């Protein structure tokens, strides 16, 4: 078995940016545990837009992630991490547990996000996102600056 440090990977981006695709690839490449709030909300029968349910699920997954990090595991969280304060909190807490922390920021132009969401909206059983909702998300999103990105560890893969 390869001896390695625990690592937290935060996957950051807007809807349609490819967070789940990247996280699934990293899950395999890094032999990691991937925690996706959208998947848990769906599995538990919650509406993806139920803010209270999302908060509870994300808090529960974060507690689980911390226990995994303390046990030396590589953990991927694909919450989106729209706010700098949330990224800072996760980075600092994970470092306190002795983990390396990387931020995978998926910066995708709005036109491409709209194209991807339109395709995803056509898939059976998908949650339909409108362009208006996507643009509203963009206005709430705090993109990481280079100075912030420099606070994280370089990617393993």
List the helices and strands and how they pair.
Layout: E1 7-12, H1 19-29, E2 33-35, H2 37-43, H3 51-70, E3 74-80, H4 84-96, E4 100-105, H5 110-121, H6 131-140, H7 146-149
Parallel strand pairs: 1-3, 1-4, 2-3
Helix pairs in contact: 2-3, 5-6
Computed Rg: 16 Å
SSE succession:
EHEHHEHEHHH
What is the level 1 CATH name? Answer: Alpha Beta
* Spatial order of strands in the largest sheet: 2-3-1-4
Number of domains: 1
Number of strands: 4
Backbone structural class? alpha/beta
pLDDT < 50 runs, ≥5 residues: none
Number of helices: 7
Key structural traits:
4-stranded parallel sheet, 14% strand, Rossmann fold, 4 strands, 157 residues, alpha/beta
Note down, in words, how this protein is organized:
The chain is an alpha/beta fold and 157 residues long. The protein has one domain: P-loop containing nucleotide triphosphate hydrolases (Rossmann fold). Helices cover 49% and strands 14% of the residues. It contains 7 helices and 4 strands, in the order βαβααβαβααα. It has helices spanning 19-29, 37-43, 51-70, 84-96, 110-121, 131-140, 146-149; strands at residues 7-12, 33-35, 74-80, 100-105. It has a 4-stranded parallel beta sheet, sandwiched between helices. α2 crosses α3. The longest helix has 20 residues, at 51-70. It is globular and about 40 Å long. The two termini are 18 Å apart. The mean pLDDT is 94.
């Amino acid at each position: 078995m390869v001896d390695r440090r625990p690592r937290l990977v935060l996957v950051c981006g807007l809807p349609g940016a490819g967070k789940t695709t990247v996280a699934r690839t990293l899950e395999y490449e890094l032999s990691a545990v991937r925690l996706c709030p959208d998947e848990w909300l769906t599995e538990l029968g919650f509406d993806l837009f139920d803010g209270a349910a999302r908060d509870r699920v994300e808090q529960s997954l974060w507690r689980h992630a911390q226990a995994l990090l303390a046990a030396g595991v590589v953990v991927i969280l694909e919450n989106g991490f729209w706010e700098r304060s949330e990224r800072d909190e996760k980075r600092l807490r994970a470092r306190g547990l002795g983990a390396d922390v990387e931020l995978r920021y998926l910066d995708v132009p709005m036109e491409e996000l709209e194209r991807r969401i339109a395709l995803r909206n056509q898939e059976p059983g998908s949650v339909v996102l409108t362009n208006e909702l996507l643009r509203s998300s963009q206005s709430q999103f705090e993109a990481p600056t280079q100075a912030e990105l420099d606070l994280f560890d370089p990617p393993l893969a």
